[in-house]
Amino acid sequence: MNWKTVQRILGLLLMLFSLTMLPPVVISLIFNDHSWVSFLEGFGLTLLAGLLCWAPVFRARSDLRLRDGFLIVAAFWTVLGTFGAAPLFFDDSISLSFTDAVFESMSGLTTTGATILVGLDDLPKSILYYRQQLQWLGGMGIIVLAVAVLPMLGVGGMQLYRAETPGPVKDTKLTPRITETAKALWYVYLAFTTACSLSYLAAGMDWFDALCHAFSTVAIGGFSTHDLSIGYFDSAAVDIVAIIFMFAAGINFSLHFFAWRYVSIRHYNQDPEFRAYTVILIALSLFVVAVLFQYQYYASASDNIIEGVFQAVSIATTTGFTTDNFSMWPAALPVLLIFASFVGGSAGSTAGGIKVIRWLLIYKQGVREIARLVHPSAEIPVKLGNKAVPHRVVDAVWGFFSIYIVVFGVMMLVMMSTGLDQVTAFSAVAATLNNLGPGLGEVSSGFMTLSDTAKWVAVVGMLLGRLEIFTLLVLITPMFWRH
Length: 483
Known about the structure:
It is built from 21 helices and two strands. By secondary structure, the chain is mainly alpha-helical. A two-stranded antiparallel ribbon has the order 1-2. α7 packs antiparallel against α8.
């Protein structure tokens, strides 16, 4: 383990991250909300910690190895999420405990969107902006992690990227190409954010809400500046803009990269994961709308359609925006939507969940096993498009799926042991492990009523979900630390 190199990189990350606490100072001065001091305190603390971490080893230049990569990726969200809580902890206007501040910060950075804050409409603008900014930065971090780093680590089949369609990264090790890729992805991400912000402006939001909601929409985060989330605006135009950009943000960003680089959209339809992702969202939306019509839940046909499609896309992509309390919807719709979050968006997107590509491979392997019953001697490969998927990747996907279910079960039992009922415990784990945000039961309107123990379990769930589970679990295995 190259401890000095790992320490140097974490120190640099902390110093860079400290700079993200300065824009809220500007927002605080613009709106005169008197919260700028807490952000300066957070900036100073984070900068000092980064400097103390970096200074003793700033000359370390050893090449990173596989184990170093796992440690850095896990520490990236753990350390930055913890220090990101500093301004929230220091601010007197919200008076958060350390647990609540870390929960809110980690929820933002992992783009989960679960919250313990109430009365958002009355909070300082700088605090509201900072929460949205955390999600936006976390969303970009996720894309770089998924497209540039996780394939190198070979985590749970993530090395499968673009088995058929050309993408931005083909390398299996850290090279200068990753720097170029990350830079290009930033351009794509900024373009999406700008387009989303301008679209919200055109739909009737003011500049502050447009910018903040663009941050959380493109990051598939779900934080809002209002307690009623997107429902606050009561606007079909705003809902439609959100639907479009949530759908786009749930697509593998390597496909967006390809479209940006070659000015072509043909490759979208050639990608099997994109086709599956689109079919799933359309089928789910149609079913939800049909049930709402059957129960005549909303007075007008347009409300049934827009509300149904919005909530289906928001929950399925793990964004977590709401226009209504879907936990009160009729029949099995609330549970169906929570189940949809287990699928999530595409790999390489800002979405959470198990990811469409893994479910597609599980489905294809299931079909293959049925075919083997009829033709036991046949060699039937699992294919994506016209290419056979390596056995190693299929095994990794099954391994990931198995660990996901085990982790979910353990977390649910721990949640229930803190006094939560089954529905609340189930949805709380689903909301955090899938990086979704809203849940059912006691957490339908937020996690503020949970005990500190349950909140820390939720924080662990957010990290596990965002880091694809294996990346974090591998750190607790004895073999990882053996020389």
